Recover the amino acids of this structure.
């Protein structure tokens, strides 16, 4: 009897009646699309045409991995718990399904979507993306995370926006006073779930979870999966679809990681050499330990004509975001930032109904910094001028490069234990445990990635040491303090909120403007910008470095005047002694 032929599936495996009738099979296919299928596009998701038009206006070619996996599940109405790295498109992965469902509920003028984020910066970023995707739709999006009065926020919510973006503290406060109603809520998003819980929003999340209606679709997005994410999951989700895409994204996000072990003062020397000799190409974020340190590095680099900007935690939120925009627009190619709690704009006590607890890392130290939440574009290199305090902070730092499938480089300057506190002017207390942090980072490296020795020959930098020492002496502690104060005063003078006050008190504005006209806090030495050929390795001249001396002697010019040879001196006048000849002045 001939053998019975069985039908094969897309994976060339025989199908059985049980597998065909299994109710879990469609969900499995949605979560794990067959590799045989063609590369999906945004149009294959069945999204509203107005959203597809907005996607085209954003110049997004193909959906990212998290979007391919999450959007079909979200359109089916499933709860999603997704882990995906920074810059992988998590925001659009939940915004597109939410906007699609909002457009399907025509005539509904109630708040149907609430997006919770940990910081003001991330709230503004999510709001901008939502507004750009809703550019061709009649969908209202409101941001409640900014520091505004209760009356202003109540007026915003009175317009009945379909999508509200807020921190948990702001959302809970507006729910408590009756300004925000969640009776028609259909979608709840907790973005950066580990940070939301880690920043001490647990009580606010408890209050929100107790007051949302049943059947709300939950999106829980995070760059990591840890106990904080599990706590948020327990509050909102019962049986979500887990998308752990961190390991799959390693292939598309290649970060070459290098380590340079050096002395404390050699950090500045290496930074000078890396930038001045064009050893670092493209846009770079330099991470330092604190704000003072960031201004010290900035003033040091300015001695050599290297332009950089500082993301100062002391400046207002709008100023910080403006700095990020200038960096993204290539006005600055070097951005110096510190891992301070204030950088991210964590909620102040005036914005809270109760005090907050700081997030802790696995080392028991705060896990903060600009490395989470802020959108930096086309960053090619991360320079860890000062090492972070934990391996998790290191991972978030280097996550600013190699985004959206691009490659990147991370260079870390590490202080060995025997060289710590050997140079008082450049010593930084946060570098005491650099080697311990490095060991933890190396221990948790995934397969195919690792930290390599940069193999930088420090002996070749010996000719630069006299210039480095001269520039470092100019960056004093007083100069750093004056630079910080000067920038704050300039922001006050440009503040729109204080414009009315300065109209009534012109003398105060005059004082601020007088401070702006002061000399540069650190004395700029013009000769340091020039790198002579004999100092360069191999005698080769670096690119994009030009120099024209102000005292360069003019060549002698021989001017023929009425048949006579005339020699002019340096000042351009005729030199009579060199113009005479043996025959005298001659006939006229």
């Amino acid at each position: 009897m001939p053998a019975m032929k069985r039908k094969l599936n897309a994976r060339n495996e025989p199908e059985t009646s049980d597998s065909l009738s299994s109710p879990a099979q469609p969900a499995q296919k949605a979560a794990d699309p067959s590799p045989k299928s063609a590369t999906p596009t945004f149009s294959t998701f069945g999204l509203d045409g107005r959203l597809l038009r907005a996607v085209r206006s954003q110049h997004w070619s193909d959906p990212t991995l998290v979007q391919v996996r999450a959007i079909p599940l979200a359109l089916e109405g499933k709860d999603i718990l997704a882990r995906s790295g920074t810059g992988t498109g998590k925001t659009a992965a939940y915004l597109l399904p939410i906007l699609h469902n909002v457009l399907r509920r025509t005539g509904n003028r109630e708040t149907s979507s609430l997006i919770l984020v940990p910081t003001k910066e991330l709230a503004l970023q999510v709001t901008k993306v939502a507004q750009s995707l809703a550019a061709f739709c009649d969908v209202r999006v409101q941001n409640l995370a900014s520091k505004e009065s209760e009356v202003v926020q109540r007026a915003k919510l009175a317009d009945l926006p379909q999508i509200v973006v807020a921190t948990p503290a702001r959302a809970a406060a507006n729910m408590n006073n009756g300004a925000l109603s969640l009776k028609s809520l259909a979608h709840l998003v907790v973005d950066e779930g580990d940070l939301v819980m880690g920043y001490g929003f647990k009580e606010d999340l408890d209050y929100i979870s107790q007051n949302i209606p049943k059947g709300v679709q939950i999106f829980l997005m995070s760059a990591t999966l840890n106990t904080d994410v599990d706590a948020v999951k327990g509050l909102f989700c019962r049986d979500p679809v887990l998308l752990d895409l961190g390991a799959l994204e390693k292939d598309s996000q290649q970060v070459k990681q290098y380590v340079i072990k050096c002395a404390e003062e050699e950090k500045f020397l290496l930074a000078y050499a890396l930038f001045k000799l064009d050893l670092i190409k493209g846009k770079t974020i330099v991470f330092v330990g604190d704000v003072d340190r960031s201004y010290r590095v900035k003033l040091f680099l300015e001695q050599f004509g290297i332009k950089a900007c500082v993301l100062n935690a002391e400046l207002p939120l709008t100023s910080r975001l403006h700095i990020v925009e200038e960096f993204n627009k290539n006005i600055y190619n070097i951005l110096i930032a510190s891992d301070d709690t204030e950088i991210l704009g964590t909620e102040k006590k005036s914005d809270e109904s109760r005090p907050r607890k700081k997030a802790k890392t696995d080392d028991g130290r705060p896990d903060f910094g600009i490395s989470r939440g802020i959108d930096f574009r086309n960053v090619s290199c991360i320079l860890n001028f000062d090492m972070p305090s934990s391996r998790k902070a290191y991972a978030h730092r280097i996550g600013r490069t190699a985004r959206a499938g691009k490659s990147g480089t991370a260079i870390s300057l590490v202080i060995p234990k025997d060289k710590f506190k050997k140079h008082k002017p450049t010593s930084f207390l946060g570098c005491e445990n650099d080697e311990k942090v490095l060991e933890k980072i190396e221990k948790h490296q995934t397969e195919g990635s690792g930290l390599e020795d940069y193999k930088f020959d420090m002996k070749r930098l010996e000719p630069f040491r006299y210039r480095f020492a001269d520039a470092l002496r100019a960056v004093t502690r007083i100069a750093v303090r004056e630079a910080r104060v000067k920038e704050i005063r300039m922001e006050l003078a440009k503040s729109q909120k204080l414009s009315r006050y300065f109209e009534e008190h012109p003398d105060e504005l005059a004082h601020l403007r007088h401070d702006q006209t002061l000399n540069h806090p650190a004395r700029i030495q013009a000769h340091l910008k020039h790198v002579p050929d004999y100092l360069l390795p191999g005698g080769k001249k670096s690119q994009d470095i030009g120099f024209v001396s102000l005292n360069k002697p003019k060549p002698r010019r021989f001017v023929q005047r009425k048949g006579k040879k005339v020699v002019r001196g340096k000042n351009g006048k005729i030199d009579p002694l060199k113009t005479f000849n043996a025959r005298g002045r001659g006939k006229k």
